[in-house]
Amino acid sequence: MKLNKLIYSLPLAIGLVVIGTGCGKDKFNINQNINSPTDSTVTYDVVLPAALHATGTIVANQWGTTQNWMGWWARSGTYAPSVIEESYQITTGFGTGIWNNCYDNNYDYQIIISKAAQAGAGFYEGIARIMKAHNYQMLVDVYGNVPYSQALKGGLNPTPAYDNGVDIYKNLFRELDAAIALIKGAVVNATNPNKNIATNDIVFGGDKGKWIRFANTLKLRLLVHAYAVSGFPIAAEMAIINTEGSGFLGAGENVMVQPGYVTDKPNPFYNNYRATPTGTAPQNSVYYKANEWGIEYYKYNADGRTTRFYEAGANGLVGVAYGLPPITANAAANLAGIGPGLYKTNTAPQAIMIAAESYFLQAEARLRGFLTSGPSVVDLTNQGIQESFTYMGVSGSAASYISGNAGYSDVDAAAVANTPANPAGTQPVGGLFTIISQKWFALNGITPLEVWTDYRRVGYNQVVTSSPINDRFVYGAGVGFDAGPPLSVAPQNTSTKIPVRYLYPQTEYNYNAANVGAQGTVERYSRIFWDIN
Amino acid sequence: MFNIIGRKGEPGASESSSKTRLQRFFGKLGFNYNNWAFAEVTGSYDMDSRLAYYYNYQFNDIRYFYPGGNVSLILSDAISALKGNKTLSYLKVRGAISKTGNVNLGAQGLENTYGLGGGFPYGTLVGYTSSNQLRQFKYTPEFVINKEVGLELGFLKNRIMLEATAYMQDNSDQIVGVQYSGATGFTSALLNAASFVNKGLEFDLKLTPLVKLGQVNIDVKANYTYQTNEVTKIIEGVDELGIGNANYVIVGQPAYTFKLTDYVRDDQGRVVVDPITGYPSVDPVIKPFGHTSPDHLLGLSLNVNWKNLTFAAVADYRTGNQIYTGNWGNPMDFSGISKRSGQNHRQPFIFPNSSYWDGSKYVANTSIYTQNGGYNFWSQAVNTSANTNYLVSGAFWKIRELSLTYNIPSKVLGFTKNVIKGATFTISGRNLFMFLPKTNEWYDPEFANTTGNAMGVAGLDNTPSTRIFGASLNISL
Lengths: 533, 477
Hints:
The structure holds two protein chains of two kinds. Chain A has 22 helices and eight strands. Chain A is mostly helical. In chain A, the strands form four sheets. A two-stranded antiparallel sheet of chain A has the order 1-5. Chain A has a two-stranded antiparallel sheet with strand order 2-3. Chain B folds into two domains: 20-128, no CATH class; 159-476, no CATH class. Chain B has helices spanning 59-62, 75-78, 326-334, 375-378, 381-384, and strands spanning 22-33, 37-48, 63-74, 88-102, 114-116, 128-130, 133-134, 142-155, 160-179, 188-213, 216-233, 240-244, 247-250, 257-263, 271-272, 282-291, 296-306, 309-319, 322-324, 354-357, 362-364, 391-393, 396-408, 422-435, 468-476. The mean pLDDT of chain B is 90. The chains are: A mainly alpha, B mainly beta. The interface between A and B is large, with 98 and 93 residues.
């Protein structure tokens, strides 16, 4: 071999020797995140305000379909029909925002819970547990069985299994118990881990009593939903609430989020349904207009809230039938729109739950017999109506509305059979019918999910024993008005029933296939566990 | 007047800073024996701060080594029997094996981050919310082991040159964004999640000139690639992951494979329709359908030269892959401007290749018309939520460029010829023609809504590639 022709370039091993000495190893340790908080650096107190605001946004903005199905709103003739919604042929791609937003929000609450627990910030932890329970209640009421015990674990469990809705409900009581104990025991001063709770708690400003009453009211909501489920520990849970003793949300105790909404960063409902920060009308303010049946029902009772829930359009306080194909007469500008009692102002706080609902829940619990003391069913119902009037900004009391509809059981909780309003005695009497009807009148645009839940869980045969078996609630017909909520009149609609749930999102079928598959075939009429009519 | 002083709304403010440090020791040793045998070995040793987890820093986590080597032999020079051979004028064999490492991460990428919540800060109140992409404390670099062997042949004084290469690329631990169930608290996770093997054959043929007829020279160049790939491993215990855009990584399948929703079908593959409405229904359980990278790629170029005139053409062909056109097809079906939504004149029709359940068995459907054949069919979920309606072949032929060049002879330049050394005049057209299979009524298969891994899907906002006509005059002084 002619080795003189062997040419070599750079030797290979020079560098390797240098490194072994260890000099400068630490100069590579520069990967700390200096732009954003991370799992290592984030603290519970900066996450809480954003999480509470996000919950408010979910309650404000995810329920257009529910508003339409329950007969309050309808699509204006300015928009092409959303046939999926208006024919009730929902798909796995429909309404997935509730799923994603609730879990996303709950992850933030989970972070607060673990960070606050490490730091001993019981007040923060308690609030996060209450809000997490609130979101799981919504998830179960919309989807039934959902991931719970294995959820929110990030990469530790990328495919969380589903828990039964009833088991989730039962566990939420324990979550709320823990939350109440933590809040009760929390010491707040200027230096301890609970400091600044008054600023960062943008719901109650650090008011322990209100948080505990909210937790109890959530428990009552769960109990009222599940009262008829065989074996559900109603009495035992009620005993825990009574022993705790703080009671439920009272007069004026609305659960409202207020981070400090300003014109440029407005209230989420206002931003979505009224006007954007630049003053333009958002799409939803043109899309959603008064439902003909709904607005007429308020007017039928000469309800002072009519002009608070609705705002007259060019043709006055008129609505449109849900699902009606677009024609000029139904153009958005002609129809009544979402009213000032709902959108309020751009800087108003955002509701999560209102005091009126607390009274209606107490009234139903009293009527069902598991709330055994305190005001009567009639008093509680009337108080709920008054709270709704106050919340909606109706001047004056609800008394004239109640007396003006005396004998009519959708308003008068004391209405009895065989009166001039109900001569044959075949119509529903006051009590349950009043409570469920008044929740329809009061929670429009605020917490419509609760009304959809009522519609699904309270069969009409529970209020009118002579009625043929009807597993869904019927509004209006019992007092001489048209039966509702009305079905979509869309020509393509062949369904005769409103769906009783949402389908699991397509992302579950894609990325958590085995677990969602274990739920079997889920269709729009598959019932939630408390739906036993 | 436009001035931000008169803006509507509140301007945002943000800042971000980052620093990364990459240090590489690189060594190369090359050998050359008598100008016919060549060999080279290389080695790289990297230290990359992007792999450092600040709170538990381990130097071992951030360093990695990757070597390489290649050999080539020009046999036509080495073997005396081949020297001066007129038929086989050039013969070279080569082989290479190399490993390369890459850190496909940004700075500060090893922890879950928290961003400002909606609208925050409100006054002095700050609020942070967890990001939706899960990160890990530790990532390994992506490694690719590339093995290839090649053969280069020249015939007839190198008028015919053929180059053939066979390669195998073993990609391990590729860092990809994996889609998650929202119930985890995240919608995706960045993981060292994909290992796959690419194999292929490449042929490159040059005929220069192919034909020489007097003063006419015709050159032809062609290259052809056959490529396949297969996912070999994901992460422990997982054999399928979605990376978004309907793209999936499935062990044993090509990377990446589409998984899509389809109609409910009977055992013979016919679409099952409702005996009353005539409508099909969609099965939410997604199934694999085709892959996103082409199997066969062919490139052709032609050059014809006569005296001072040159004509050139470049064309491309690809096939074997699928594209998903739903982002485009859905709104077109919704608004009724797609071809398929008009194919039955918007009248009720019998769903093609369909069957229905007659109570005991599936019967071919020859009589049940869809209840509606217009807006209420085509724009609705019964049509648009079956993804497979929008899965079409990604094959295409493209005439990329045609050009005609005239070399202006110096004699016509007259008295200027002392100043001007040469002048050429060219007219050309680019992106002139595209030929697509009949099924693809949608768009250019090369469109994509991402530059990431999840290919084969275009958005609504792609503009068609521009057809460019040009004329140019080049003067050299």
